[in-house]
């Protein structure tokens, strides 16, 4: 009996593995088709200066709407795109599209684009960024590239070279999801980032626990002393906003100050923001 049960359990795992593999294979097929049919879109989320509440610019966030699946989260399909070699063409499309949009906004509003660690392989990134800037006419100083620790982790030398070349072009570099990796602090020594984006997990905690609040204050102070601007991500409540403002962060990005929105809405906000906000309209 025990033996029979054991075999049943094994078959159960076997079946669920087949199901998982089948699901992954289907996601891969759908993702390849999405690339071919250009079923992607960008959403734009405001970044807002503190304490002035003025709009600084937007972060471009990739969206995939599959006709059958509906919207698929980037957290789900970007790792797969990286694995199967699709992140380079997708990333190139994101850069070109985001730069074209931003070129239509009043200066100096900026656009932030997420760059996958995989895009640093093959030494094409600098040329791809240069081409996106040239094609759009966007001033390089209005483009920010957001990288995570993953980009700096494996190799270093070629990645650092690319980052310095990009910075030499006038493009700004941000460290995304700061504080979630294994050695966030050591990366601040390796490269002079323009901006540190404090991960939303610390902002989430800032409401309730003293430790998260203390970490935000410390990172804001660290950024100030290193000459890097600090942005708090994922701010959802007025309480969180007042905490992070009190902590000395330079800017904020979160649902409270603006959800990711379609290009047309971002454009309207950008034009409106080129006039100073009335106090009643201001966000804080
Ligand atoms: P990220 O770069 O850290 O982007 C911030 C994520 O937090 C976005 O999720 C955004 O919608 C979400 N967010 C913003 N404010 C709030 C808030 O107040 N509350 C909560 N709960 N969430 C908030 P999204 O758009 O699902 O993107 C997830 C991740 O996927 C991004 O994290 C980024 O790592 C990656 N990603 C998105 N677009 C691209 C892209 O074009 N290229 C690459 N390589 N990665 C991308
Ligand atoms: Mg980002
Ligand atoms: Mg982030
Ligand atoms: Mg400020």
TrEMBL record:
Span of domain EAL: 24-274
Protein name (Swiss-Prot/TrEMBL): EAL domain-containing protein
Organism: Roseomonas haemaphysalidis
């Amino acid at each position: 009996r025990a033996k029979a049960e054991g075999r049943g359990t094994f078959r159960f795992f076997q079946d669920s593995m087949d199901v998982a593999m089948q699901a992954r294979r289907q996601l891969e097929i759908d993702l390849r088709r999405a690339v071919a049919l250009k079923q992607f879109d960008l959403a734009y989320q405001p970044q807002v200066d503190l304490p002035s509440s003025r709009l600084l610019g937007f972060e471009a966030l990739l969206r995939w709407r599959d006709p059958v699946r509906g919207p698929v989260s980037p957290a789900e399909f970007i790792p797969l795109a990286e694995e199967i070699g699709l992140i380079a063409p997708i990333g190139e499309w994101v850069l070109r599209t985001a730069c074209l949009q931003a070129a239509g906004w009043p200066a100096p509003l900026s656009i932030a684009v997420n760059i996958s660690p995989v895009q640093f392989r093959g030494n094409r990134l600098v040329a791809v960024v240069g081409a996106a800037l040239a094609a759009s006419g966007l001033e390089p100083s209005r483009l920010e590239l957001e990288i995570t620790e993953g980009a700096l982790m494996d190799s270093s030398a070629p990645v650092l070279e690319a980052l310095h070349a990009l910075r030499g072009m006038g493009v700004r570099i941000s460290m995304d999801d700061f504080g979630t990796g294994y050695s966030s602090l050591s990366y601040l020594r390796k490269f002079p980032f323009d901006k540190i984006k404090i991960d939303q997990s610390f902002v989430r905690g800032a409401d309730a626990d003293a430790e998260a609040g203390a970490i935000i204050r410390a990172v804001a102070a660290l950024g100030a002393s290193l000459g890097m601007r600090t942005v708090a991500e994922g701010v959802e409540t007025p309480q969180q906003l007042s905490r992070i403002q009190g902590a000395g962060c330079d800017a904020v990005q979160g649902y409270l100050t603006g959800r990711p929105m379609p290009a047309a809405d971002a454009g309207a906000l950008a034009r409106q923001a080129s006039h100073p906000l009335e106090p009643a309209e201001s966000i804080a």
